[in-house]
Design goal:
This protein is mainly beta. The chain is built from three helices and 17 strands.
Length: 168
């Protein structure tokens, strides 16, 4: 039996709406990339990984949602939805490990105002590409790739140099 198309209107079946349910959830991705429910980390690693695999943008309003093909709900995102825990250089690419168990290149690589490394992932996903950043641990794993460049510090990836911190 084929699944009916998802109803993105935000309406709930009457019996759920009468019970006080809504599309808003108590799920949140904090600034460190942890999936939280009611302020506590989702404790089951496989469940957290699966839920992160459901992360997408609402097709109408662009808000972050978890959508599993049958149902969906909104969730809050404190900074960016994807925080890479690990990173490795492959030629001129920076490959990152994401919370849904996937690995992919970090595109549009740049430094934020604090010298953190940011970019985008999930270019082929609905609402993609999605913003991402490296965790402190992932940034530290690249310390052997740091070079002096134009009086500041940069990340060397093959023949590519990405400025991170300006000169002092």
């Amino acid at each position: 039996m084929a699944r009916p198309p998802l109803d993105w209107s935000g309406k709930l079946p009457a019996n759920l709406a009468e019970l006080g349910f809504s599309r808003e959830s108590k799920l949140r991705i904090d600034a460190e990339g942890r999936l939280l429910h009611e302020g506590e980390p989702v404790g089951h690693a496989a469940m957290a990984r699966a839920m992160m695999g459901w992360l997408t943008r609402h097709p109408d309003d662009g808000r972050w949602v978890l959508e599993n093909g049958w149902d969906w709900c909104y969730l809050a995102v404190d900074d960016v939805p994807w925080v890479a825990r690990n990173a490795r250089a492959e030629g001129e690419a920076l490959i990152v490990s994401l919370a849904d168990g996937t690995e992919e290149p970090l595109a549009d690589l740049h430094a934020d105002r604090d010298g953190g490394v940011r970019g985008s992932v999930k270019a082929g996903a609905r609402g993609g590409p999605h913003p991402a950043k490296l965790s402190r641990t992932a940034q530290l794993s690249l310390v052997d790739r740091l070079v002096e460049h134009d009086g500041g510090i940069a990340l060397a990836l093959g023949g590519r140099v990405v400025p991170l911190l300006p000169r002092y």
